Amino acid sequence: MKERKHAREKAFQVLYQIDINKDVTSEHLIQSIDENVNPYAKTLIQGVLNYRNELDQAIDQKLEKWSFSRIGTVEKTVLRIAVYELLYEQQIPEKVAINEAVELAKRFNEDQSGKFINGVLSKFMNE
User: Domain named NusB/RsmB/TIM44: which ranges (predicted)?
Assistant: First the structure.
């Protein structure tokens, strides 16, 4: 299970870089890290990139008193990964995906970020 935790962190780092660094193409970044990334991280990266618009719309629909454009890049990236897992990776239990997302948000931002992530993702439970 530690492998998946590490994969989520790697996927977060790559997807975050893609989001903030407009000069780097996703293909170039993925190629540069290709040999060091485990298969699940690649699945997450490709899945989020392939379904990004759908993920963003799904997240936006769950927000209350927020607009998607107001969410910070760290939170957007964590939410995209978690919602991808919730919607497309059926073998991952919902609670695991949410807990891992909260931990990821806390690791790369702050505790408040984890609470926000938990609040949004809890609305995806049992859909």
Answer: 6-125
